[in-house]
Amino acid sequence: MLWRSVVGKLWMTILLLVSFVLGFVAILLSQFFRTYYVDMSEARLQKVATSVSELIEEGADVKTIENIAYKFSDPLSRIIIVEDGKEISSSPKQEGLVTLTMDDLKEDKELAAVFTDKKEIKNNIRKASNSRKNKNTENDIMIVGKPVQSKNQSAVFVYESLKVPIQGMERTTDFIFLSAGIAIILTTFFAFFLSTRITAPLRKMREVAFEVARGKFDAKAPMVSQDEIGELATALNQMGKQLKFNMNALQQEKEQLASILSSMADGVITLNQEGEVVVINPPAEHFLQVWQEEKEVELSKKLPSELVELFHLVVESEQQQVVEINLQKGNYVVLMTPLYNQTKIRGAVAVLRDMTEERRLEKMRQDFIANVSHELRTPMVMLQGYSEAILDDIVQTKEEINEFVQIIYDESVRLGKLVNELLDLARMESGNVELHIGEVDIHPFVEKIGRKFQGIAKDKEVALTVDFQNPIEQYPFDADRMEQVLTNLIDNAIRHTNAGGHVTLVIDTKNNGLTFEVRDSGAGIPEEDIPFLFDRFYKADKARTRGKKGGTGLGLAIAKNIVQGHDGKIAVSSVVGEGTTFSVYLPNRII
């Protein structure tokens, strides 16, 4: 509404102020002119009375006095001359003027005192009702009495109707109030124009302020003057510019923080004072999802009970707290620290670190140490035992000594093989083994491996065959290392295939690469053991090697590292009771 706006308020303020001032001035002027007209009438009557009184004292005759008096008197005034207490002369009666008689003068003590006590009266206003029962205020009179000092009970009375000064006063008052009304009307338009002009820049600045509030920081307020309003427009423009700079800086910091949080491997959760999630990054969301799926509960924006308890502990103790949460799909360590608003805790920040891989590696390290200790202890004990038997002359015959020496030799070879494979595997995992990749003739390479195992396969009564699916002459890889891989796979296949079974080495080209497959018809590998086959010292089914000469448990781990060194892949598929297939894929590498 207009009255609630700055224009309306300023307009009404100016209008009320001018109206009050003009009204006050009009009242003062009307009172001033009222007094002015009365004083003018009194002065004129006083002048006439004095002149007549002086003529009487000078001894002028009545006729001369009347002529001179009537000449100076107003047409609406009347003169009464009293001598020795009697009216000796009076001007003619005037229409509309109350006629005073000698009786009226005598009855009024104040008027009678003029000729009895030589007392002069001025500005004596008499109501017409006192003498003539006429209630019309226009018939009220003003009377002046001047005593004649040289004669007893003599005086001159001059009076006139107040109609003349009243009419002059009314005309003046009407003019004053008309002028005031016109001035108020003009002030109304001028005040509205002035307030509109003054507030126009303010309205524009209001629009600019709303634009800035909506994020449009390029909006500018016009500078229409160099006064306070112009300075306000300049300050508003500078504020918008500074806000734009600050908002851009905040946006950059926000994006930088979001980028950092998104790229962090650790999960981050920021909580407010009520324990509600304020900021969360993708790793933390993944943790909550895993926890929700495992616990089969709906979290929405709430936290797991473990984190809620940790948050309360952090707030109460005002200290950093650490807790480990173990789930089936992973292990997490949560580090929660309080956040302060000056001296008061305003929330907490939790860092969630996925320790699954670290725990797995730690377990592998422990298992590795245990397995190495176990694998080394067995040949060491056998070497020590059989050596002591020979040294203590427990064996006497040459055949027994030769048998013990042969056992010692076999175990020392096995021990040496184990140590070499451990060193070889360590070098591969550290990346210190260099592959010598070159063009290899496939047929001679495969035939060489086949001849190596023909004797062993014949002894085990296992059929060993080679199958070329797609003829290929040459392919780039490290011949020695790939021979080591295939040797390990074929050796495992023959050892775990019963008599009458078969082992097949299949060579194929697919997916722009070379594939070696070692298929056997052995006992197969349980499904739960397949994910761990390529771990160090892992042996799938101990029943597969029970009663047989087992390996070191490092062959498949070494084979995996060699294949990955060629940017290839090694996989296994098996059905218990039907057989197992190991496949090695080597992509075509440019030498």
TrEMBL record:
Q: Does the UniProt entry include the keyword Transmembrane helix?
A: yes
Sorted alphabetically, the Gene Ontology BP terms of this entry are: osmosensory signaling via phosphorelay pathway
Q: Membrane spanning segments where? A: 12-37, 175-194
Q: Where is the Histidine kinase domain?
A: 371-590
| Enzyme class, spelled out | transferase
Q: Tell me its EC number(s), please.
A: 2.7.13.3
The record describes its membrane topology as: Multi-pass membrane protein
Query: Quick check: keyword ATP-binding in the entry?
Result: yes
Q: Which reaction does it catalyse?
A: ATP + protein L-histidine = ADP + protein N-phospho-L-histidine
Instruction: Using the UniProt record, give the first listed, main subcellular location.
Output: membrane
| Localisation | Cell membrane; Membrane raft
Q: Which residues form the HAMP domain?
A: 196-248
Its keywords, alphabetically, are: ATP-binding, Cell membrane, Kinase, Membrane, Nucleotide-binding, Phosphoprotein, Transferase, Transmembrane, Transmembrane helix, Two-component regulatory system
Which Pfam families does this UniProt record tie to the protein? HAMP, HATPase_c, HisK_sensor, HisKA
Q: Which domain of life is it from?
A: Bacteria
Q: Which Gene3D superfamilies match?
A: 1.10.287.130, 6.10.340.10, Histidine kinase-like ATPase, C-terminal domain, PAS domain
* GO molecular function terms listed in the Swiss-Prot or TrEMBL record: ATP binding; phosphorelay response regulator activity; phosphorelay sensor kinase activity; protein kinase activator activity
**Could you identify this protein by its name?**
histidine kinase
